[in-house]
Amino acid sequence: MLTLEERPVPEPGQGEARVRMLATPVNPSDLLFVRGLYSGVEARFPAPAGFEGVGVVDALGPGAGNLAPGQRVSVVNGQGGNWADYAVVPAGDLIPVAADVPDEQAASMVVNPASAVLMLRHVLAVPRGQWLLQSAAGSQIGRMMIRLAQRDGVRTINVVRRRESVAELQALGADAVIVAADGPIDEQVREIAGPEGVRYAVDPVAGATGTQMFKALHEEGRMLVYGSLTGEPILVGDDPRYTLAGRRVVEVFWLGYWLPRLDRAARDKLTAALADLVREGVLETEPGRRYPLADITSAVTQAESTGKQGKVLLTPEA
Ligand SMILES: NC(=O)c1ccc[n+]([C@@H]2O[C@H](COP(=O)([O-])OP(=O)(O)OC[C@H]3O[C@@H](n4cnc5c(N)ncnc54)[C@H](OP(=O)(O)O)[C@@H]3O)[C@@H](O)[C@H]2O)c1
Prior knowledge:
Order of helices and strands: EHEEEEHHEHEHEHEHEHEHHEHE
Oligomer: single chain
Number of helices: 11
CATH class of the largest domain: Alpha Beta
Number of strands: 13
Shape: globular
Strand content: 15-25%
Bound molecules: NADP nicotinamide-adenine-dinucleotide phosphate
């Protein structure tokens, strides 16, 4: 159960900063966390929620570094707690935000944008001219992948569950859009990419969609599974045509694994690239409805609705 509680304003400890939150998204990972289904962070309920957001540095603990009170920052809170008026986090985790980036972009500037860049450019490192197959393509990160792939000369095949998404994604630059209900995804993909299938795929849906995407892989294809929107398993062993030939790879992608493994220089380079790509619109987040913290139940209901437009934001001062 989600409830709003009054608590004393938290004090920052050694190396920590207190941030007054301006806007914080309701992301699928938050929804898994509040249900006790997020394996990345162990929840001991009652627990504060909210992993991402933007705010203003409000107070600094001893040894908190060079940040100045009043500085606007992007806040990735690995322990959760950004769905609040104030959050206390390690100062080193805060990313200063340039004045020309609006709050609604800065609020979602890390989780989806960094995952899109790391999956496409670093983990899969998809070469120009190749096909990338993705599911839940109408999601905010799916839209980022379409624009980033187009910029990098990668062609995308995009799987959606609603026919209404097709024209929208074509307008964004999708090379092909297929509706899952129109027939086995692997058959639809081979008609577009050729009989050998695709070498690269990313799937946050799992279940029947992930299973059919696995079957759309080239014999040396690789698929990153980065979500579980259906909560159902992917079957890789049910058809020997795909498991007794080739060397297809299914691999987990989790930003919480990759980000801490970047050294300081690589992290700075990534955050600079994210800021540029957000400004250029490539990694833009479409703003959705805004809710005050007190209306958390409506915010979550909206975030989980089928066909919602944009990213739902909690705005503590709304
Ligand atoms: N592993 C990581 O580090 C990482 C990082 C970032 C994001 N993610 C994952 O990426 C996914 C998308 O995140 P987001 O913030 O972009 O989400 P979002 O904007 O809220 O969009 C969710 C999308 O998923 C689709 N969807 C929801 N349930 C579905 C189902 N059962 N079957 C098929 N499609 C379904 C929706 O389709 P409709 O448009 O038809 O409603 C919508 O397009 C989430 O699973 C999230 O956890 C993972």
